[in-house]
Amino acid sequence: MPRPLGELEDAVMTRVWQWNRPVTVREVLEDLQQERSIAYTTVMTVMDNLHQKGWVRREVEGRAYRYTAVSTRAAYSAALMNEAWAQSDNPAAALVAFFGMMSPEQREALQAAVRIVQADAPQEAPEPNPGTNPEPSGEPLEEPSDAPSREASGGAEGDDVPEGPGR
Q1: Backbone phi, then psi, for 25, in 5-degree steps?
Q2: Residue 131, CA distances (Å) to 145, 154, 159 in order
């Protein structure tokens, strides 16, 4: 499970995720400097840390690295939610509380996501019900209720088994 990103790690990863292409330390630095005063070496250290933690991969290009996200922001967010849910001693209550915090738009997004997951899930063959034919026709093994029963016709259970030697 991923540890939550720190403030500066999140700021760097936000750019990497948004740009969705290999980026250099210089590009991230220049964008971050529009919001705050920050040194090149600080951004370089953060990006190296993100590489060491497995958040980005890097490839050498000339004298610099180009960094690419290993996964998406959505996957990161999902992992954080999953970890928080797994930490609960009452996961159902945690979900109810979480759903209660959602806006109507978020609930609609949740419902759409559930529909997508259900549509993508492999359809499992239903378990055969006792007393039904496991054949695809699904016809019951028992005689229809309007047909005479074996007991009413004087037959005993097992009459349809042919007599063999010693019977």
Answers
A1: -60, -40
A2: 14, 22, 18
**106-115 tens-digit pLDDT:** 999 999 999 9
DSSP structure string for 150-166 = TTTTT--TTTTSPP-TT
Non-local CB neighbours of 99 within 8 Å, separated by 6+ positions: 107, 110
Contact criterion met (CB below 8 Å) for 125 and 131: no
> How far is 72 from 84, CA to CA, in rounded Å?
19
For 112-156, write each residue's pLDDT tens digit: 999 999 988 777 666 655 555 444 444 444 444 444 444 444 444
- 44: three-class secondary structure by DSSP: helix
Phi, psi (deg, nearest 5) at residue 80: -65, -45
* Residue in the block written with tokens 């738009």: 105
Contact indicator for 58, 65 with CB cutoff of 8 Å: yes
* Residue in 45, 37, 12 with CA at minimum distance from that of residue 27: 12
Yes or no: say if 143 and 149 are a contact pair by the CB < 8 Å rule.
yes
